[in-house]
Structures are given as structure tokens and as C-alpha cells.
Design a protein that fits this description.
CATH class of the largest domain: Alpha Beta
Radius of gyration: 26 Å
Structural class: alpha+beta
CATH architecture of the largest domain: 2-Layer Sandwich
CATH superfamily of the largest domain: Major capsid protein gp5
Strand order of the largest sheet: 9-10-18-15-11-14-13-12
Number of helices: 12
Shape: flat
CATH topology of the largest domain: Major capsid protein gp5 fold
Order of helices and strands: EEHHHHEHHEEEEEHHEEHHEHEEEEHEEE
Helix content: 25-40%
Amino acid sequence: MSISDHDFSALPTDLETKAGFPVADVSFDEPSQMPSSGDEVARSFDGFFRAFEAYRQVNDARLEEIEKRGSADVLTLEKLDRLDATLDMTKKRLDDLSLKARRPALGHRSSSMGGSRTLEQKAAFESYMRSGRDQQMRMLELKSMNSGTGSDGGYLVPEETETEILRRLSLVSPIRAIAGNRQVSSGSYKKPFAQTGPQAGWVGETSPRPQTASPTLAELTFPTMELYAMPAATSALLDDAAIDLDAWIAEEVETAFAEQEGAAFVSGDGVNKPTGFLSVPQVDEAAWSWGSIGTLSTGVAGDFAATAPADRLIDLIYTLKSGYRQNARFVMNRRTQGALRKLKDADGNYLWQPPAVAGGEATFMNFAVTEAEDMPDIGADATPIAFGDFRRGYLVVDRVGVRLLRDPYSAKPYVLFYTTKRVGGGVQDFDAIKLLKFSV
């Protein structure tokens, strides 16, 4: 049976057919051009569900063809791939709309955040950004010198701008959004942990009480590394009084910071960057010990098992202790998520489900799914699926203060704004994260 033999008349009427496949009736403009009204979010959310319904019907057709003929029709596979891409695009659009709707108007917050000092600081910072005049900044004693090289100076951005940068990063950086977070004023954060708990034992009512061993303590250290971005502005932009420069700098650096952070939190090697959770030593779960991440193998190199492929994912869920499972989630990239969308349970129900509300998260086996593009693809000996309580398992450490140095000389006629922050990260509980390994 080919794809043309299937009846798709039950598909929603406002799904239009483009290039031979049904897609949601939505457009994909740049996020900056998207309206962020509640009506637009609702329409995109509705379109996402319609696209998913079309995806399920085409995938059911694919499974029926495999059952009858041993393989799926090429047109069916092509149609399914395009619908999969449509789902990803629609979900991204919905996320962008929801995020934009939640952003406050940064330029109107200073009057309510703390009196003349805040207003004076904001005015001094804006004067420095627009014209390079730093007399007011010096008077406010906001000069911040790099401890490594005294010739490299900069000015601390106003507190509200720093807060906005970190808040936006938590929304656009997937691992930062789900991990634990600490802010420090020093170059590193040190966290003690007990390798062994206090000893105890049973004794009789009148028996002697021997002294028990003390718990063994160790220390985890999370150094902060420098992360930088260098947005450029034209003279016309700086001369335009209608431009909110606080909001502009936050928008410019958020994507650059988030991309670098996202990669480091997943696979950073710890050299001038955070240590990612995939860079921690990995061992089979049966031989797990503190200091390593436990893995569970699929039994097939580079693929799921041919029969009952979802069973190994159930095993992965239950490698976690119950205390971690309550807040656990899956982390994977969109290509891996596309593979999981096709899986069903014994009753024919899809294990992957779209978010129930606008701005919500997709789920797999009732656990939230976080899409992190820096996770590896499915392949031999790869670990493309992580599962765990990342709030307890991974820690992001931010050093207070975001610095900015104005450079009107290096790229004339543009003005560069060398913006830096210090951030670190690493695994803080090695038992809270587990990995699915596609190996024998």
C-alpha cells in the first residue's frame, strides 16, 4: 500500500498541502518580526497540535506499510520527514512567541527599582555607551579592572541590565534553564559533600556503644571562566534617542552567550570553559561510583533494539533513585527527539506528547523533554539521551557583574562593545544524571 492509498480526509481542513504534504497553516517569519499577542500565541499553539495530528496519521500509515510489505513507501517516509521538520519549526515559533510575550519592558523599570542612585547610574552608563564620556562612571566608582591584566579595563553595567541578561540566558540556554544556579563574588565556588554518611549500628539495651566512624567529606570546586561577546553599533544607532541601549545590549549578547554556554554545559572540557556533563567519566551503571556518570546500553550499536525499543528507555528511567525521578527530565537534540516521536506503547499510544499549554514542554513517558542542540546525534557508542534531575545534578555558577568596554577604534566606523561575564559549571551530584548509550 502506498501513501496515496491512505485516506487523509480526516485531517483538519485548515491544513494546506504544500509540496505534497500537509503542514500547519502557519508562517515562519524571523522572531523579531513576530507579533507577541495572546491571539498569535493561541493560533500558533493550535497549528502545532494540527501538525502533530497530521504527523501521527502519516506515521501510522508508515507502520501499516511496514507490517504489510516489510518496508515503508518512499513517499510516506518523505512526507513524515517533512512533517517532522514542520513540527520543529512550529514549536520553535511557539517558544519564541511565548518568550517574547514574557519579556518585560526593560527601559521602564528603573524608576521603580530604587531611586536616584539607579537613575544616576543608568544615565551615566548610557552617556558612556553613546558618546564614550566616562566622567560620570568614574565618579560613581564603577571602574572594574581585570585582575590578570591591569591595562584591560571596563565598566560594570547597571544592575538591572545584568539581571536582564542573566534572565534572558535562563530562557534561551536550555541547560541553564534546568540546572541549579549560584551567584558568587569570588573567582570560584566550593561545595563540600559527604562521600560516606555517619556510621550506625544496632546494640542491646545494656551493651557498650563503640565509637562510630566519622563521615568522609570532600570538596567540589567550580571555577568561573570568562565569556565574552562583542556586538557592534553604528553611529546612527547610538545617536537615536529612541533606542533603549540597555535593552539593545541585552538582546545582542544573549544569543552569543547562550550558544557558548549551551555547548560548554553539555560537552565543555573544563579548559577556560565550564565542564560539561558529557565530559565527566562514563561507566556502565552496574559499575557506577561517585565521580562518574552511569550509562545504560541499548544493546545495538547506533540504534534501538529491533523489538520493544522503548523498553530500554523505561530501564533508563528506573536507573534513577526515586528521589531524583520526581523532578527528572529527558535532554536530547531535535533529531533524537524526532526518532522518539515515532515510538508507541503496547496499546498503540504515542509515548511522545506535545505540550498541553502554550509555553509548556513536550513530554516523553510523562517526563518533560528539554531540547539541547549540543547533545550528540544517535550513533555508535554515542550518548544522545540524558535523563535526570538536572537541578540537583548540574550546577551553573555566575560571578556577579557584567563588564562592558567601549571600543570605537578597532572596527571604524562601527563602535564595538566588548562585553564579558564570568561563568562556571559542572556536575554536583553524579548520581542524579544517567545516559542512554547506543552500544552493544
